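EI: anyone free to look at a 322-residue chain?
SC: sure, send it
EI:
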Amino acid sequence: MTQKLLTLIVAAMLCTSEVKPCDFCSMATGINPYYNGKNKLLFNLLMQHAQFTPVSAASPVQNSVAMPSKGNSVQHAGHDAYASGASVDEQRRTLEISYQHHISESVMLTAVVPFYQIGVQTAIDLSVQGMGDLTVLAHYILKTKISEAVPLTWLVGAGVKLPTGNSSMKDDAGTTLDPRVQAGSGSWDLVLNTSLIAVQDEWTAAFDLFGKINTSNADGDLIGNPLAISFTLSRDLVRSNADNFALIGIAGVRVEAAGKDMVQNEVDDFSGFTTGYLNVGGQAAWQFLRFNLTALVPAVQARVSDAPREGVRLLTGLRIEF
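SC: here you go
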């Protein structure tokens, strides 16, 4: 059954429009923090959209790699709108597959692999696809109580992102692509995560922090360190214990930020951003299956004047628990 589900999800991803990766692609599970002590196989499909403001022909920004940089897009990779004044439209689909396994009641291991189909549509179209970097995490789980009626679960984790993805892809002319549109990073990076989850009756409150400390790769590329902070509040809308079925409403806020990028040992002054989102979504649970649908709506965006503005980001996810 698992193989059939994976086949359906991959087919859905490949039949959609072109996509583009980012440092937040492997952070989908932090958008709506969730933990119930079970082992899980997770499939998350992240859909994202942004539009670029055309840049003046008098001052184009160029660098030595394909798709010259001009600011940091929602996908943590920006591109010039070119001297022709053409706008840039970005969409992406990222399939993230992860597995969580408890080796004891207090220790959980997680492995995450993203798959990208990368695309940028402008005066020059770019299309790349491939597997991203593998992330491996270990969490220590502490269970306590805020009060007799409110149990609290605290997860503290750390791990590493391994350079397993392709980081040397080239265009048709043989020019190496900008490192921020590569499927892989070519670097070993430290990953940090903590979550707090409190439950009272049909209500659940959750806080999640996910950050990375990136290192430079062999080409002198260093992507700015990303940080994401989420707070969500969920409530059972419909629940039938007899049928093992529930509909859950979810709302909250999320903040994402990233530092400036370095490309071939040169700092991109147009990179770096902070964005605040409203988080609205829900979950349908039946037996061992969990289906999620979430919309992240940008409310506040702090970027340089010529950088793109992000549209609504959608996340669909399927979890298998056992």
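EI: Confidence is low (pLDDT under 50) at residues 1-27, 53-85.
SC: 👍
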